[in-house]
Amino acid sequence: MSRFDGKVAIVTGAASGIGQEIARRLAAEGAIPVIADLNHEAAEACAAEIRSTGGDALAVAMNVVDEDAVGSGVADVMAKYGRIDVLVSNAGIQIVSPVIDLPFADWKRLLAIHLDGAFLTTKACLKPMYAARSGSIVYIGSVHSKEASKLKAPYVTAKHGLIGLSKVVAKEGAAFNVRSNVVCPGFVRTPLVDKQIPEQARELGLTEDEVISTVMLKDTVDGEFTTIDDVADAVLFFAGARSNAMTGQSMVVSHGWFMQ
Ligand code: NAD
To answer: For the chain, how are helix, strand and coil distributed in percent, rounded to 5?
Structure first.
């Protein structure tokens, strides 16, 4: 019997990239992942793929910055399964620009998806978790929760902010056996990163290969990208931890780019 058998895990932004792999891995360990994503069609495809391998999965259309959509998505999960054991707050975007050129609207849009989204989904999931006196929340931060890079002001700000939110949730949730932690990946080849390679090349006057070798992977110990598997391993470790010993923490998974 796996530590995740029969557990219900909402994963936001799980129709693509890192979130999709987290959902697959949770399903492989017996959990029922809820694929909560803006892109409903891709979420349905991801849930169908998991069901075709013999697991259960539910797709939910959810814009994490829309309080009503978050509330109704969580209500649908409760109506169908009657429990929420795990929230993985993963939905996110990237916008690349120097501060001096960054439109205010882009600053607000990025902060909203990362921070308002984390807040709204956390708040909605804490209610059933507190009632059950059990739960685990994992935020997908980044090495940019600890470090800065040029061109990423709103992203670095939001990812640092998630660590603060997680620590407060760890303190408030402890009385209800609700734990809260952050996984901080290095660069992972997902659509989010593939989109920014040419954008960074343009902004920095480099070739795309130079962006990879001199910006993204320069400080890793082995010149390797972090993989979706590497990140899922860390998420499952936090999500499945058995006591409050593992709460209020953040773990960097980055091939040594950032060392604590
Ligand atoms: P991705 O672009 O492959 O997937 C992001 C998913 O989030 C998409 O399915 C998208 O539809 C969804 N999404 C976007 N806005 C949403 C919203 N408002 N509501 C609901 N869903 C929304 O990206 P990814 O690389 O898998 O990134 C996932 C998370 O991992 C993000 O928080 C990102 O910041 C973080 N992260 C990524 C990397 C990396 O190198 N790829 C590194 C560190 C952290």
So the answer is: 50, 15, 30
Predicted TM-score (pTM) above 0.90: yes
Every domain of the chain and the residues it spans: 8-186+228-253, 189-225
Residue 183's alpha-carbon distances to 56, 62, 159, 180, 232, in angstroms, are 25, 22, 11, 10, 9
Q: Which fold has domain 8-186+228-253?
A: Rossmann fold (3.40.50)
Residues annotated catalytic, as ranges? 155
Cα–ligand 1 centroid distance for 175 (angstroms): 31
- Ligand 1, atom 4, residue with closest C-alpha: 16
- Ligand 1 center–CA 93 separation, angstroms: 5
pLDDT tens-digit readout, 89-107: 999 999 999 999 999 999 9
Q: Is 13 in the pocket of ligand 1 (CB under 6 A)?
A: yes
Query: Is 141 within 8 Å of 250 (Cβ atoms)?
Result: yes
Q: What is the mean pLDDT of residues 16-26?
A: 98
**Position in ligand 1 atom list of the atom nearest CA 225:** 40
Which residue has the CA at smallest separation from atom 19 of ligand 1? 63
Backbone dihedral region for residue 209 (phi beyond 0: left; psi -120 to 50: alpha; all else: beta) = alpha
